[in-house]
Amino acid sequence: MPKAPRRPCPHPGCKVLIERKQRACRKHSRVLEARKPERIRGWRLQQRRAAYFAEHPLCRLCERAGVVRLATELDHVIPLEQGGADDWSNLQGLCHDCHAAKTAGERRDRQAVGMGGVDATLHGRTV
Ligand SMILES: [Zn+2]
Ligand SMILES: [Zn+2]
Fold it and tell me: Ligand 2 mean position to 69 CA, how many Å?
């Protein structure tokens, strides 16, 4: 039986060959895991949502504004893409409206660099 083909470790600059089923060489798999927390999905996610909402049933942003509203969405305070941890300390329950507003705000932040043209138009002087 032929041996399964090996591939190089995905860590930049590392040339160690690893087995297909490995994510990185022994030295770098730990680094990879620390940097990229795997997003949990499926029933584990459902279970965590349920557990979280059981303890924190209200929308955190509405609560801050003095409004009592049930949270329906589980949100990462710091998005995973920006290095946020995938654990309870980085979670908050939000109602649909607050979650939509927060997501829109994050998108705006990300695009802010390319907004110069729009701003110029808004101020009446197209560049
Ligand atoms: Zn490596
Ligand atoms: Zn809310």
Answer: 6
